Amino acid sequence: MCGIVGAVAERNITTILIEGLKRLEYRGYDSAGLAVYTQQGNLERRRRIGKVSELEAAVAADPLVGQLGIAHTRWATHGAPTEHNAHPHFSGQELAVVHNGIIENHEELREQLKGLGYLFSSETDTEVIVHLLHHTLKTVPDLADALKAAVKQLHGAYGLAVISVHQPDRLLAARSGSPLVIGLGHGENFLASDQLALRQVTDRFMYLEEGDIAEIRRDQVSIWDVTGAKVQRETVQYHEGAEAADKGEYRHFMLKEIHEQPTVVQRTLEGRLGKDHVLVQAFGPQAADLFAKVRNVQIVACGTSYHAGMVARYWLEELAGIPCQVEVASEFRYRKVVVQPDTLFVSISQSGETADTLAALRNAKQLGFLGSLAICNVGISSLVRESDLTLLTQAGPEIGVASTKAFTTQLVSLMLLTLSLGQVRSTLAAGVEAELVEELRRLPTRLGEALAMDAVVEKTAELFADKHHTLFLGRGAQFPVAMEGALKLKEISYIHAEAYPAGELKHGPLALVDSDMPVVTVAPNNELLEKLKSNLQEVRARGGQLIVFADQAAGMSNGEGTHVIAVPHIIDALAPILYTIPLQLLSYYVAVLKGTDVDQPRNLAKSVTVE
Ligand code: G6P
Q1: What terms describe the molecular function in GO for this protein (predicted)?
Q2: Does 242 score more than 70 pLDDT?
Q3: Among the atoms of ligand 1, which is closest to the Cα of residue 301?
């Protein structure tokens, strides 16, 4: 994913820009560049394909010194990863822009600007921004005013930074759908797409809100909101606890990572949603062409990532009408697979280094798939490098071995895939995409509400502390959620946990049910609820203890042997994401009660790079 760093200072800012880019490397990128207003009064840039270290070497060989500059790591969406497509983009030698996000009406703007005599030197959507701004400056000479006018013509998502030779005391920024943060120094100020990039220069930050335009000078920051009104944004002091490698106030990384989910889900959505649709280009420059040909999907993954794939099968078939198969990588890689024509191979992995998943991808390349897509949390992983398309989950580093935030961000990414395929292939029912985009925007808030169940789930965990076996039940897309709940419990509390589709209960597991075996169920208020209730009766009739996570409106209540825990209401399609949260909390608190090593459970590894 792209990254932005900017600085305006009295000292030379080149090293600050490069250090900032290095701190954003974990997000994944394919080229890097920077532009500096030099002491000679020119705008100069260096750009390189590959690592930031290559850019650093280029700057060392041919130094750039200045007090104002912008820098970028690019993850190609429009145009291949080449030096001429790398940012910053210039208009003449006067203006430089770096941009995160996707400008949807770039083709139309490009034609208009060409008509006005602008010459384009890249295939990027970004280049239209810099020429559009240049054109606007002819009639609106102030850079901030011109930027306010120019962004009104942009459709899509952007976080951008601009510098100009004509007003070299300021750095301009605009945010819409892609995050930006201002770092406040003493007599110097900074800008970045992620505060991590600026931690070496400041601990005070100001987060831009949607629609904000900022003018950042050495000793002053001015911000205008979406209506054009001048506003103040709160200054936030950074606290150590916010760092990924630090547990902060939490007792375990796992609990911290569970609580990070609203933030990382928000981050996974950022820059990928248009007004009422998903931005298909978020999957890469060739995504729209490739998706148009997809008639089937084959998903391959391991562990928790496999469960995410199983949820996606329900979504792809129900919402987008696209046939989907899901298989664990260790099976897929060793069996003779018959590939349906026009099948997209999708691998899902937190680490991007899981040996079986990687081997499955390598095999898939020989099997005649249409193309490959990696849904992955690590931008510089082998899986990403070797796949045709990538969508990075933005979960940030996950330390707890039991995966939590990686799973929910995978689910969000798979919903984006479902809507993108449905959009490109016109297989979604009318209004579905707009409604789900709206609901996805609300999802971080909903997840926050689910996290408020923490105390009640902690209390419920007491029911499990002395048990040796449990059953998890779900129906429809909640079945894989039950599987993931069972996996979490067994991974960290060492209690034997099995998941079943609730309809299978009578075909075997019912024989195990007695008062010593808690049965956990996820029960959103959907068309399968009544069927699920009947299955639960079957458990109660055998003296089984039920723990039911149910929609507030599901009409279920506590009774003897039945513990109902209310879950906030959510649209059914997104219920698998929300219902995962109480199950994660449950396994966490059971493990804490049992005194196990929550973050590093016995015998398990975070990244399984061997077969
Ligand atoms: C290990 C981890 C799991 C993870 C699985 C797949 O078993 O402990 O948390 O789900 O590997 O890993 P991946 O990185 O490919 O998602």
Answers
A1: carbohydrate derivative binding; glutamine-fructose-6-phosphate transaminase (isomerizing) activity
A2: no
A3: 15
Q: Which structural domains are found in the chain, ordered by start?
A: 3-237 (3.60.20.10), 253-594 (3.40.50.10490)
Confidence class for position 240, pLDDT limits 50, 70, 90: very low
How far is it, in rounded angstroms, from Cα 152 to Cα 523?
45
Classify burial at 46, counting beta carbons within 10 Å of its beta carbon; exposed 0-12, middle 13-18, buried 19 or more.
buried
Residue 245 region, left (φ>0) first, then alpha (ψ -120 to 50), else beta? alpha
| pLDDT one-digit tens code per residue, 45-56 | 999 999 999 999
Pocket of ligand 1 (CB under 6 A): 302-305, 349-351, 354, 357, 401, 403, 604, 606-608
Instruction: Give me the pLDDT at residue 26, please.
Output: 67
**Tokens standing for residue 592:** 């804490």
Note the pLDDT tens digit of each residue in 456-496: 999 999 999 899 999 999 999 999 999 999 999 999 999 99
| Residues forming beta bridges with residue 67, ordered by sequence position | none
> Can you tell me the mean pLDDT for 244-254?
82
Sign of CA dihedral 284, 289, 292, 298: negative
CA of 339 to the centre of ligand 1 (A): 26
Give this prediction's pTM: 0.77
Out of 257, 299, 304, mutate this one to test ligand 1's pocket (max ligand atoms within 8 Å of CB): namely 304
Catalytic residue at 2?
yes
Asked whether the predicted pLDDT for residue 553 surpasses 90, the reply is no
Nearest CA to 354 out of 42, 582, 607 is that of: 607
Collapsed DSSP state (helix, strand, coil) of residue 499: strand
Q: Which residue shows structure tokens 């951008």?
A: 160
Whole-number Å distance, alpha carbon 351 to ligand 1 midpoint, is 7
The answer on pLDDT for 66 being more than 50 is yes
Query: Is 302 an annotated catalytic residue?
Result: no
Residue nearest ligand 1's atom 9 by CA: 403
H/E stretch holding 48: strand 43-49
Q: Ligand 1 centroid to 608 CA: how many Å?
A: 7
User: Across-strand partners of 205?
Assistant: 183, 236
- Axis-axis angle for helices 432-451, 261-269 (nearest 10): 160
pLDDT exceeds 60 at position 518: yes
Distances (CA, A) of 417 to 58, 294, 422, 605: 38, 12, 8, 29
Tokens describing residue 85:
């497509």
